[in-house]
Design goal:
Blueprint lengths: L2 H12 L8 E4 L25 H11 L2 E6 L4 H10 L6 E6 L7 H11 L6 E5 L2 H8 L4 E4 L6 H25 L15 E5 L6 E6 L2 E4 L2 E4 L13 H5 L33
Helix pairs in contact: 1-2, 1-6
């Protein structure tokens, strides 16, 4: 199948999905080409898997960026092969270096260079340890077995769409709760404690202004002053007799003062 025919089919596959990645990242060895480049010589003429170039042409026509993430120990040979295959201009980033991080370092550098979030990336690789590591970063990842082809390409786009749908569902669920909004309410007319000016005082008023010690006071704190509670001693002590005058019920209003005559003095001993 020629590159143009593969490109046409890849474009049809892309048209099946509404959610598309902004960046597609490829491994090199046994993903784009069928060999380990460290086992080859720079003088050789490399070749890609037969669907690889057509798929990359389709991505470029669709405006989707591409990058390389390879742990090859011979980046010089890999870059020579990329030049010979005339695909260098297709990639916005080429991270080719040996690493024990299972390509997390590669993706961190790619993300810094492109500014594209991990959730907007799609990754193809032939090693499951790389797939597992990069998937934990939020990247939709596909394990290829016989190199990149149209079937793997469609599977990757399907996985990406599933990731996007799952992220959207999580966001919708988390956004259902109404946010707690604190509004400033008017302070009811009441007496409140005032701690301004280095001392305590009584403040009576409404809203943001009131009277403190008989003077206008702006911005009084709105701590309501509760009525004083009776002390324990007051609750236990007997009531004190009232000092009010005792009225004489036999006298009419307007007569002599409404006072009963004082009691006679006690007899002398």
């Amino acid at each position: 199948m020629g590159d143009e025919r593969v490109k046409a089919e890849a474009l049809q596959i892309l048209g099946l999905f509404q959610a598309l990645p902004r960046l597609v990242v490829f491994d090199l060895d046994y993903t784009l080409w069928p060999f380990y480049c460290e086992c080859r010589s720079k003088r050789e003429s490399p070749s890609l898997y037969r669907h690889a170039k057509g798929i990359m042409f389709a991505l470029r026509e669709k405006g989707i960026d591409m990058a390389i993430a390879s742990r090859s120990p011979t980046p010089d040979i890999a870059k020579v092969f990329i030049d010979k295959l005339e695909i260098k201009s297709m990639f916005v980033a080429q991270e080719i270096f040996s690493s024990w991080t299972h390509k997390t370092e590669h993706f961190q550098k790619i993300q810094r260079k492109t500014g594209i979030p991990y959730k907007s990336m799609l990754f193809f690789d032939d090693e499951d340890r790389n797939i597992e590591s990069i998937s934990k970063m939020g990247v939709a990842s596909v394990l290829v077995e016989n190199g990149l082809n149209l079937d793997m390409f469609k599977l990757g786009l399907s996985n990406f769409a599933t990731n996007v749908a799952a992220s959207s569902t999580i966001y919708k669920k988390s956004s259902r709760a109404r946010p707690h909004v604190v509004t400033k309410a008017k302070v009811p007319k009441a007496c409140v404690l005032d701690a301004a000016g280095g001392g305590l005082g009584l403040y009576c008023g409404a809203g943001d202004a009131g009277v403190l010690h008989g003077k206008a006071h702006e911005g009084a704190p709105s701590m309501a002053l509760p009525p004083p509670a009776p002390s324990a001693a007051a609750m236990l002590s007997p009531p004190v007799p009232s000092k009010e005058r005792t009225l004489n019920p036999t006298r009419a209003r307007g007569d002599e003062p409404d006072l009963l005559p004082p009691p006679p003095p006690p007899p002398p001993p």
